[in-house]
Amino acid sequence: MHLKIKLEWLLLAALIILVLPPMQQFLEQSMVTHMLVQLPALTVIGWRLGRALPESWSNKIAPWNRWGITGMAFAIIIMTYWMLPRALDAAVSEWYIELAKFITVPAMGIALGISWPLLNPIAQGVLKLEFWATFMRLGWLYLDLPDRLCANYLLSDQRVLGQLLLLIGSAWAIAWTLRVMFGTKIINT
């Protein structure tokens, strides 16, 4: 007997697992896992949901999301908010901010999943460059500042996050360079 499970159900199960208190507490005990595991996982779940939406839904929002601009603006606003150290602190300390995170971050992923394919390739390139620059800026900021930015996390955790952001940003830049110079596709960006 071959059991076929719909992608939407798998994504919903993954979201429920991330929301359950043991997993939530595990991922939020460290600034690194909070920013580099939990938030991206919620975004990817939203992205996949956005890509799995019926075409009729995409057609209904198309007049308000011409060329993907509205959806990308929405996603950038949410991404910018959740990169603020104060937002991470509030999500750990206040239940209603935590709830907002579990709603807005997947919503950002849905907006990305719907809007990214609609963007002009030049706009995609500009946004990729800006996302990369944001990784590098935040990495440098978290690494170089002598004070903690998040009250709920240790300074050493902040520095490890800074190093990892710089490392990921550097790997991203190398992958792009190899792709542009030699046509070698290491990652799909």
Explain this structure to me?
The protein contains 9 helices and no strands. The chain is 77% helix and 0% strand. It has 189 residues and is mainly α.
Give a concise summary.
This protein has helices at 7-19, 21-28, 31-52, 55-61, 69-82, 85-93, 95-115, 121-144, 155-182. The chain is mainly α and 189 residues long.
Query: Whole-number radius of gyration?
Result: 18 Å
Q: What is the helix fraction of residues, given as a range?
A: over 70%
What overall form do the CA principal axes indicate?
globular
Succession of helices and strands: HHHHHHHHH
Strand content: under 5%
Number of helices: 9
Let me know the largest β-sheet.
none
Show unreliable segments. Answer: none
The average pLDDT score comes to 90
State the end-to-end distance: 37 Å
- The secondary structure category is mainly alpha
Kindly report the oligomeric state of this protein: single chain
**Quantity of strands, as a count:** 0
